[in-house]
Amino acid sequence: xxxxxxxxxxxxxxxxxxxxxxxxxxxxxxxxxxxxxxxxxxxxxxxxxxxxxxxxxxxxxxxxxxxxxxxxxxxxxxxxxxxxxxxxxxxxxxxxxxxxxxxxxxxxxxxxxxxxxxxxxxxxxxxxxxxxxxxxxxxxxxxxxxxxxxxx
Length: 152
Ligand code: FES
Hints:
Layout: E1 2-8, E2 16-22, E3 25-32, E4 35-40, E5 54-63, E6 69-82, E7 89-91, E8 109-113, E9 116-121, H1 125-132, H2 138-142
């Protein structure tokens, strides 16, 4: 694990989000109501750059006492980031997926130290990201070569 200063807490937008590159890894940093959270920029679905997605209020269905729907409304308390690859939504306060309790973003420790924002990079983060999101062209190179004359 390694502590890295990523900037001044006072200069961070509130509410706001930044994706910072540190040692070849990407960390998504979020601020809401002055509280900071940070996550590895890797979606648990298929490795997409989840922290770079749209930020929206959670959409909640309002249910009447007789269990009928009263429609939908934006939450005033919960904010989600939407993965740009397939649209999975995660709570930026907890990293929890909205519909699947087994899916969550991997948290990165973040704290304010003497006015600086400090993230603690977890061990193995770079390797985990590389496995989840192979470099461009790697997927093509892994495909079997096309063969001529095999009747297809
Ligand atoms: S990779 Fe994020 S939703 Fe699929």
